[in-house]
Amino acid sequence: MDYKDKVLALYKESGIKFTEDELASIEYADFGLDNIEEEGLNLIVYVNNDRYCAKEMVLLPGQTCPEHRHPRRGINKEIEGKQETFRVRQGLVYLYVEGAGDFSSISAKVPDSSRDYYTISHEIILCAGEQYTINPDIKHWFQAGPDGAIVSEFSSPSDDASDIFTNPNIKR
C-alpha cells in the first residue's frame, strides 16, 4: 500500500464519516523535508475563516509533526497567534510543549535527520477521548503512537504562512 492509501485507510477506518470531496481534499504536508512518513502531517480542513478553524488530522504510526509555534501576526502583530485544542479520536499521541522535561525519558522517537531541531520535551500523552489546549506562541510538536492517530483540531484562525518552525529547512 502506498503512502496516500495508508492515510486514506486510516481516515476511512476511523468511524468518522467523510464526504468524497473531503477525502479528495486531503493535504499531505511533507514540510519540504522529503521524508513524509517520518515527519509529515495529513489534514482535512473543515473550515478556516477569520473566527475559527476545524481540522481532522491523521498521523501514520510514528509520524511526527515537527516542532513549531503560532506567533502573533499581522502588520503590527495585532492578531493573536493560534490557540488550538487537540482531541484524539483514535490511537495515541505523544505531545510535547514548553516546560520541564528530559529527552532521555520521552515516549516518542525524535527523527534522527532533524534531531537538532527538537528542543522541547515536556510530555503529554493523549489517548483516544482526551484533549489538550495549546496556547498561542508555545512551541510544540507531536508524534503518533504505534497504531497511528486521528486527531481533531479546534482552533482560532489558522495561518500556516505565519507558523515558525524550529527547523529552518521547513517550507510550509
Automatic annotation (TrEMBL):
<protein>
    <recommendedName>
        <fullName>D-lyxose ketol-isomerase</fullName>
        <ecNumber>5.3.1.15</ecNumber>
    </recommendedName>
</protein>
<dbReference type="GO" id="GO:0046872">
    <property type="term" value="F:metal ion binding"/>
</dbReference>
<dbReference type="InterPro" id="IPR011051">
    <property type="entry name" value="RmlC_Cupin_sf"/>
</dbReference>
<dbReference type="InterPro" id="IPR010864">
    <property type="entry name" value="D-lyxose_isomer"/>
</dbReference>
<keyword id="KW-0119">Carbohydrate metabolism</keyword>
<keyword id="KW-0464">Manganese</keyword>
<keyword id="KW-0413">Isomerase</keyword>
<dbReference type="Pfam" id="PF07385">
    <property type="entry name" value="Lyx_isomer"/>
</dbReference>
<keyword id="KW-0479">Metal-binding</keyword>
<dbReference type="GO" id="GO:0047828">
    <property type="term" value="F:D-lyxose ketol-isomerase activity"/>
</dbReference>
<dbReference type="InterPro" id="IPR014710">
    <property type="entry name" value="RmlC-like_jellyroll"/>
</dbReference>
<comment type="similarity">
    <text>Belongs to the D-lyxose ketol-isomerase family.</text>
</comment>
